[in-house]
Amino acid sequence: MNVLRNSVRLIGNLGDVPKVRKLDSGKKVANFSIATSEVYYDQSGKKVSETTWHRLVAWGKQADIAENYLRKGSEVAVEGKLTNRSYDNKNGDKSYITEVVVGSMLLLGKRTDKE
């Protein structure tokens, strides 16, 4: 059986337009976040809605797609792998971040014109 050891699939909505930049090498990278929501009923029967934000990074062709088609509120399905990295924040302290590196993306919902 073929099993992907580090794979994640998410369907959510963009919180803002992707931030796209071109590296010195000429390769593009896009950073954006999506929100996923879960609705359930707690023990008392009260309806509870929880939203989780996920940071995503797309490279190359996926960055082009993000730049040209994704808008704030866009619904998207992504598949990729989880990565962890660290950096030194403004105070000089080490901070850690978990991101999804996008392998594939499917645009959901209706098509909208570029703003």
Automatic annotation (TrEMBL):
Domain of life: Bacteria
Transmembrane segments: none
Keyword DNA-binding: yes
GO cellular-component term (any): nucleoid
A biological process from GO: DNA replication
Pfam families referenced in this protein's UniProt entry, alphabetically: SSB
Signal peptide: none
Gene Ontology molecular function, alphabetical: single-stranded DNA binding
Keywords assigned by UniProt, alphabetized: DNA-binding
Subunit structure: Homotetramer.
PANTHER family: SINGLE-STRANDED DNA-BINDING PROTEIN
Name of the molecule in the record: Single-stranded DNA-binding protein
Source organism of the structure: Mariniphaga anaerophila
Highest classification ranks of the organism: Bacteria, Pseudomonadati, Bacteroidota, Bacteroidia, Marinilabiliales
